[in-house]
Amino acid sequence: xxxxxxxxxxxxxxxxxxxxxxxxxxxxxxxxxxxxxxxxxxxxxxxxxxxxxxxxxxxxxxxxxxxxxxxxxxxxxxxxxxxxxxxxxxxxxxxxxxxxxxxxxxxxxxxxxxxxxxxxxxxxxxxxxxxxxxxxxxxxxxxxxxxxxxxxxxxxxxxxxxxxxxxxxxxxxxxxxxxxxxxxxxxxxxxxxxxxxxxxxxxxxxxxxxxxxxxxxxxxxxxxxxxxxxxxxxxxxxxxxxxxxxxxxxxxxxxxxxxxxxxxxxxxxxxxxxxxxxxxxxxxxxxxxxxxxxxxxxxxxxxxxxxxxxxxxxxxxxxxxxxxxxxxxxxxxxxxxxx
Length: 339
Ligand code: SAM
Ligand code: SF4
Hints:
This protein is 31% helix and 17% strand. By secondary structure, the protein is an alpha/beta fold. The chain has one domain: Alpha-Beta Barrel (TIM Barrel), CATH 3.20.20. Strand 2 (72-76), helix 2 (86-94) and strand 3 (104-109) form a beta-alpha-beta unit. It is globular. 45% of the residues are buried. Bound molecules: S-adenosylmethionine and iron/sulfur cluster (SF4). S-adenosylmethionine binds at residues 32, 38-39, 76-77, 79, 108-110, 132, 170, 172, 199, 201-202, 204, 334-335, 339.
């Protein structure tokens, strides 16, 4: 079970397995300016804007979770920085930091637009960002993101560091694509003070590729890294799925997220809300509740009641499996659920 550092609140969110929910990942849009080959298909249907939660609804939902003891909120997507009014959400949530119940406000981004937002994010109280970066090779970056410009993402990372944001990189390990250059990516990141988390590709949604052909088990990656460096396991568990090691030679940390080869559900402290207000209780399962309908029909009271129901039905864990030709474990992709 994860260490519970959440402060006391009158009515904390505790599920049927005794896990306290202190972390909300909120998707603010399903749209993105990239098309990563493991995430979404090249021709993707995006929701009409009228389907999205309004800014006021996003604020109300976050407020309800904070009032029930959620202390950490990660804004994600899709690409959160393509939503025009997203900085107003950061501004609003920033007011709940420093004694207002929220302890950490953060985001996951592809960094294509981070250079122009980094300082505002810092001013809103954001201190750490996760940036997705799978390769430092411009041609491979363009291929993996279907047309992305590596220079923009690197400029975003640089601007974030300049603004005082701690940057962590997320890299999805992809068979036959970036597997040979993960050490170089890690070395580059550690040289700049950025930790790196490696992620196994998950069978969620249609990306136009069979995930089994992309899947690279991280135990194999780890063995290659161990042949090069001294990896010392770290005890850090934050209720999240990553297991960390410290690299003696670089001084940086590597996280391993292994949904396929290692179960990470026991200490789960999180839930996800989509940009349409659906509350998903597990990334790899289909149990969901319509928070937007509750909010629109019954206001804050109805929302609060639904959160209690959510705790009763949060599943024990996911049952991801990956096999050639098999359908994804869930039909929605990561950009829809909020990765
Ligand atoms: N657009 C932002 C970004 O890329 O950082 C935020 C949303 S993205 C869906 C969040 C994370 O999910 C990224 O780190 C991405 O690499 C990861 N991701 C997307 N699809 C995935 C999949 N099928 N398996 C594993 N990770 C995935
Ligand atoms: Fe966009 Fe992030 Fe998905 Fe890549 S991983 S397509 S950047 S949402």
